[in-house]
Amino acid sequence: MTGIINYGAGNIRSVCSSVIACGERVFLIEEGNHFKKANIIILPGVGAFDDGTKVLSLKGIIKPLIEEINNGKPFLGICLGLQMLFSYSEEGDCEGLGIMKGEVKKFTIKNNEIRVPHMAWNRVKLLDIEDPLFFNIGDNQYFYFAHSYYVEPDDSSVVAGRTNYGIEFASFIKKDNIVGVQFHPEKSGDNGIKFLKNFLEGKWQR
Amino acid sequence: MAAIRIIPCLDVKDGKVVKGVHFENLREAGDPVEHASFYSKENADEIVFLDISATIEGRKTMVDVVKRVSEVVFIPMTVGGGIKSVENIEELLKAGADKISINTSAVRNPELIKEGAKRFGSQCIIVAIDAKRIGKSRWEVYIESGKTPTGLDAVEWAKKVWDLGAGEILLTSIDMDGTQKGYDVELTKAVAESISIPVIASGGAGTLEHMSDVIINGKASAVLLASLLHFRKYTISQIKEFLKSKGIEVR
User: Do A117 and B123 lie within an 8 Å CB cutoff?
Assistant: First the structure.
């Protein structure tokens, strides 16, 4: 079953619905000992970095989550769920999970070239145009974004897709069992559902 | 870069779409799920539900509508109308809305913008501004469905709500709304150039040129459309094809 971590922030229902639409069963992870039941973990994201990490910490979820990820369970972080994998964000003072090395930065507005939040459908340019997570979708397709911060991993080899918004930022990262996306697959129409299906089917790991 | 968004707006009263799509073979007239699915399949970039229910029961029904829509429609959904408190916002977001839109209550209680943005993130707080021209390059903010003048200058108010943490502005020209004579491009431009959050233009669209005009000259990031789409004057694909021919990025 797919465990979706509930830390009280926003759109948990949409994430559950989209996974169910892929034909999977879901349950909410509310505390540390719920992880055992999950063979796949999703950390959704809407809200603020500090609030998110605070609730995760209060619920005693951080340590078991790090263990599960380090033990190789397939993991998907969405938007803030991707950002929280990092140890530090310009958005707040709280410490993230620290699983990925790098920074979470805020878009800078220059010459009114971009508007922040980046609230739009935008393209994901893949590094490998045959990336199995984008099977049936392809390169340079549109996904829905709603964020003011983006991740900048130290190790650029984890970046699997980029998106142009004033700058080229990492919108899709992949490392071993960890997948992170800055866009919202649960809100990206057919492309989003296809992406989730590919993730849940697990062929990308083989 | 990012694609310009085409956003259908549906009025909902007591759980039913009113002034909805005028086409046949709907299984159930006025079903919000059916309307949202229809526009999602037509490649709408988002969907907005405006709750015009006058009663508390009607409002409660809206939460149920949001739940049902979010189970089957996987594009961003905004809900506006009658939202007064952080609790109202939370209830709608938990039900599956991605953003909420506040108008009258933002003017009456600007702290609501700040609180909402802090708790749920700026990206889910839209402030709707209904503006009426009162002179050369001057517009006044109206509330209560455009009935009550506030004395607030629209451009100044837009700056204020941006500062308070709003993530987007839904800007309606009261003068042009319903006329199909084109957007108030000057108003849209004045607001868009004074802030750095996206502006959704609304009110006055009658032709495809009106839309490209408000995007190119008014600097709008999105257009909100109602009757033009519901009466099938244009389909979303027709609009997108046209905008593309004008060099505007669409999905």
Answer: yes
CATH number at residue A41: 3.40.50.880
ipTM of the complex: 0.94
Q: What is the pTM of this model?
A: 0.95
- Which sequence spans correspond to the domains of chain B? 5-245
Identify residues of B whose CB sits under 8 angstroms from chain A CBs: 1-3, 5, 40, 45, 67, 70-72, 74-76, 93-96, 98, 118-124, 167-168, 193, 196-198, 221, 251
Mutation pick from A121, A148, A162 vs chain B, by most beta carbons of B within 10 Å, is A121
pLDDT in tens, B18-50: 876 665 555 566 899 999 999 999 999 999 999
B5-245 homologous superfamily: Aldolase class I (3.20.20.70)
| Cα–Cα distance for residue pair B145/A78, rounded to 1 Å | 37
Closest CA of chain A from B2, distance in Å: 5
Query: Could you give the CA distance from residue B163 to residue B28 in angstroms, rounded to a whole number?
Result: 43
Q: How many domains does chain A fold into?
A: 1
Range of the domain at A159: 2-205
A71 Cα to chain B: minimum distance (Å): 31
